[in-house]
Amino acid sequence: MRVHPLLLAALLCAATGTVCAQGAPDAEATSARVLDQLDAGDFAAVTAGFDAQMSAALDADKLRAVQTQIEAAGPVTSRDAPRVTQQAGMTVVVTRIHRAQASLDATVAIDAAGRVAGLHFAPATP
């Protein structure tokens, strides 16, 4: 199944900052919690963890529409171990999610306060 990237792109806010980003273990836990909440359909909980810029750009209804498109690739079969990097003062966690019909890379950017500052889904590349 071909998954249209535009429908999968929730949002990736390119925020900058000079404060050190959230540490890797906390960032991994935050990212996993966001992905678990999305899978459970708890969009209010996901958006409650957004920073101000994300909150202004992506509400629970828009996030639900994105998740519906993602779910068209079938149920989650597994997740790979997250890859963590530091970019523009953010901790960026990329987790490959394997679904029945496609694999996706979920990117969660987390600011120094532990808030979600970016969320993006794209078809996995080999």
From TrEMBL:
Residues 1-21 form the signal peptide. InterPro entries: DUF3887. It comes from the Bacteria. Pfam families: DUF3887. Gene3D superfamilies: 3.10.450.590. The keyword Methyltransferase does not apply. Keywords: Signal. Residues 32-119 form the DUF3887 domain. This is DUF3887 domain-containing protein. It comes from Luteimonas terrae.
